[in-house]
Amino acid sequence: MNTKTLFRSAVALALLGAATAQAQQSTACPQLPADSGLSWVDQPTGDIQLCRALRPDGSEAFGLVISSKPTFEPQRGDRAERGQIDGHDVFWYRAELAQKPGTQARETLLQLADGRSVHVWLQAPSSQALDAGFALVSGMHFDNGERVAGQ
């Protein structure tokens, strides 16, 4: 490898690192666990903020929508597990994905102190992967207002 190629590679890695850091530090999305290796891709649309937590390979670990009105209505009969997000208790609800049979999908709804709703979802191919997803989501922190209620 010549010096020019090494320099280009170093610049590309620096830019990739800066983009990852910028995604992680997004003010609209909650703070991810520091050691998770995840980064945010956030897409604001009007008063809705879509946040997708991506693994280094580009696959989605979980996602969430922050909005003024809930984008998910929990059904008590779909309650599956109890969990925690940012130190607060939540219920996770089963979801079915017609396009992905066998995929374990869960979602929950939170309310921030400022009145906004947070709809969180995750999908996993197995129970073990689902548990790993719960662990990642539980480590998020909402800096822009303390979460006040889980459904």
**How much is the radius of gyration in Å?**
17 Å
Shape: globular
Number of strands: 8
Taking the alpha carbons of the first and last residues, their distance comes to 56 Å
* Low-pLDDT residue intervals, each spanning 5 or more residues: 1-26
CATH top level assignment? Alpha Beta
Structural classification: alpha+beta
Features:
151 residues; alpha+beta; Protein Transport Mog1p, Chain A; eight-stranded antiparallel sheet; 8 strands
Structure in words:
It is built from two helices and eight strands. The chain is α+β, with helices and mostly antiparallel strands and 151 residues long. The protein has one domain: 3-Layer(aba) Sandwich (Protein Transport Mog1p, Chain A). Strands 1, 2, 3, 4, 5, 6, 7 and 8 form an eight-stranded antiparallel β-sheet that branches. A hairpin with a 4-residue loop joins strand 6 (104-112) and strand 7. The relative contact order is 0.16.
How would you summarize this macromolecular structure in one to three sentences?
This protein is α+β, with helices and mostly antiparallel strands. It is 23% helix and 38% strand. It has a single domain (3-150), classed as Protein Transport Mog1p, Chain A, CATH 3.40.1000.
